[in-house]
TrEMBL record, chains A, B:
PANTHER family: LACI-RELATED TRANSCRIPTIONAL REPRESSOR, LACTOSE OPERON REPRESSOR. GO terms for molecular function: DNA-binding transcription factor activity; transcription cis-regulatory region binding. PROSITE patterns: HTH_LACI_1, HTH_LACI_2. The lineage of its organism: Bacteria, Bacillati, Actinomycetota, Actinomycetes, Micrococcales. Residues 33-87 form the HTH lacI-type domain. It holds the Pfam family LacI. Keywords: DNA-binding, Transcription, Transcription regulation. Residues 1-31 are annotated as: Disordered. InterPro entries: HTH_LacI, LacI/GalR-like_sensor, Lambda_DNA-bd_dom_sf, Peripla_BP_I. This is LacI family transcriptional regulator.
Length: 364, 364
DNA sequence: CTGTTAGCGCCTTCAT
DNA sequence: ATGAAGGCGCTAACAG
């Protein structure tokens, strides 16, 4: 049975013209009830109300009842700012999201959604700032507007890291730059993931395995930290297995993909396995192969690194090392909260282990 | 005259022992500098520092300089919670975003992005909550964690409205429900937009104009508030122009769209104008018409209501009444801030006027 | 089990 | 142009 504590007893009127209780009718600010009001109404002391609410001290049943009634009657709600000032914590996490046009909105929303859920479960709320507004991100933590900061879309040699490293509050990066600047990081283990994909292809008979990836960003452009690690994993796995390695950079347009399939697979038969780390090209590849009549699991096997929904939707069901975006989001929040607890433990990096999910593009 | 050493008026507590001097690096909490520290360092009073920072009182150049130096030296940053408590405002806006799978992530991100920008420009930050978590949305405003709340994705007969209407802080809805419950609303004027699209088609020679829309949600499912208004605009415009009206509900799959084109346009030639309020079907329609050999501006003209990028991308450039998502976002923030200023002005609805952009699917 | 009280860091009305 | 002092609403020692 649900005991209503903050229940709303009665509706007033259409316009809620029933201004504050007794005061004088001159109704200005509704001027919400405070803990002092509750104390008076319940005939107890201020601190008793506080302890009743926080449960940090035993309260007699009768007292608690009177307090609860007063709270319901006056529609009391604790004031976040006051609590924050006294506790020195806001129960707010900062989240810097990228607004660059070249990042997939769907992926971002998945991150944001999982981070929101995880934060809410721990009774934290989330303040969003755009990653491009560096000043603002720094400011909300310096001013104590948030207790910790999560930064998405970290790129190689990210220029924000030195500033972030100076902050006195926990900062967690989503990504894994070569130089973390001593900051905590959470990410998928792209290196292990790439190796796993290659091994799975090889274990299923492929021996001429190419890696397909997007063109390296235009010189100087930002490079996501996973690009290097995935590529490294691929070459390491090939080396380990004694295979030749060849990285093919493919622009994300159907023509280029079709050309590749025609030249390198159909005619050349150069590859019997493809490791694809290139989400937009995945669907194009599927269409090109079916149109050109390349038998997929038989002639050439395909394994990708991609979010599960990307791998499954589209024209075919691609076997893949699934990118567990929600897990990354949750781990990130968890790490932020941990660092909020133990300010002392040194920052570390947490890489989520890969799992291979065979689907329709690899042999059984 | 009284020579007061830096008044230790109330610094007795064990906490305020002010051992902040370099002491030893026993380093516990960095314990950020406060305004009192700045005052001491600059040799002025607390209030002087406060006024220097807020600029609400003239400060002599020399004093200001010393204060600025102290601030720089001690790396001072005002504390948001303290300021919020004193000012009774947090400079934080709440934003409830939908997480329903059937809302386009891209559109959401556009809303969120524009709202973030607008808020930041006014020196507000944004707290994100998921619309599904109604309790939480209410709570962040009741506890004064945010100064106002913006709620996206309002549906017809939205069950959240009564609760939102009870709040004592400004609430702004994105959408325009029939019963606003006295809440402020901002939205695109879908009614006028639909009428405009029909008139433009008619003005260009079309006289048998159908409206294409997604199937009405399964009974009981949430219905976005714009569905009714767009449809109403269509029928009103047809009536006004003395045209027959026919609303065609099309599921968002290529087969259905192709069937429609084949049966109703190719064979039947029943329509020479299509008013499309159905984003996912737009691209499908373009492909179907070109594959089936329907001459687009000549045989049948098409005008849509859609975000500009949706209208322009895809297989054809659709003439359309562009949905100005960023403007809606900005207006929403503006309205929230207005209501924060003038708590008295009654809530009202703001509908953004439509503009027709002729592109390739209408005659000149 | 319950009160009393001193802050948390900043703003602002009075004095000067 | 500058100080002094009293909150803002809540928490957490200290006393009983």
């Amino acid at each position: 049975m649900m005991m209503r504590r903050w229940s709303v007893s009665a509706r007033v009127g259409p316009t809620a013209s029933a201004r504050s209780g007794r005061g004088r009718g001159g109704g200005q600010e509704p001027s919400m009830a405070t803990m002092t009001d509750i104390a008076r109404e319940a005939g107890v002391s201020l601190s008793t109300v506080s302890y009743a609410l926080s449960g940090k001290r035993p309260i007699s049943a009768s007292t608690r009842t009177r307090i609860d009634q007063a709270i319901a009657k006056l529609r009391y709600h604790p004031t976040a700012s006051a609590r924050a000032l006294a506790l020195k914590r806001t129960s707010l996490l900062g989240l810097a999201v990228p607004q660059r046009p070249d990042v997939d909105d769907h992926v971002i929303m998945e991150f944001v959604g999982s981070i929101l859920s995880a934060a809410h479960e721990a009774d934290y709320d989330v303040v969003l700032v755009t990653a491009e507004d560096r000043e603002r991100a720094l400011r909300i933590v310096e001013e104590g507007k948030v207790d910790a900061l999560i930064v998405m879309d970290i790129v190689e040699d990210d220029e924000r890291l030195p500033d972030l490293a100076r902050l006195h509050s926990p900062v967690v990066l989503i990504g894994n730059p070569q130089d973390t600047n001593g900051l905590a990081c959470v990410d998928f283990d792209f290196l292990a993931g790439a190796m796993l994909a290659v091994r799975e292809l090889h274990g299923r008979g492929a021996s001429r395995i190419a890696m397909l990836k997007p063109p390296s960003a235009a010189a100087g452009g930002p490079v996501p930290t996973y690009a290097r690690r995935a590529r490294l994993g691929y070459t390491m796995a090939c080396a380990e297995l004694g295979l030749d390695s060849e990285v093919v950079e493919l622009p994300p347009d159907s023509a280029a993909v079709a050309d590749f399939v025609r030249d390198q697979i159909l005619s050349g038969a150069r590859f019997d396995g493809l490791f694809v780390h290139h989400e937009p090209a995945l669907a194009m590849l599927g269409r090109a192969m079916s149109q050109l009549g390349v038998a997929c699991p038989e002639e050439v096997q395909v394994a990708a690194i991609a979010p599960a929904d990307v791998a499954r939707n589209g024209p075919w069901e691609v076997s893949s090392v699934d990118l567990p975006i929600p897990s990354i989001g949750r781990s990130t929040v968890a790490m932020a909260l941990e660092r909020l607890r133990d300010r002392e433990v040194p920052a570390h990096t947490r890489l989520l282990s890969p799992t291979f999910v065979p689907r329709a593009t690899t042999l059984p």
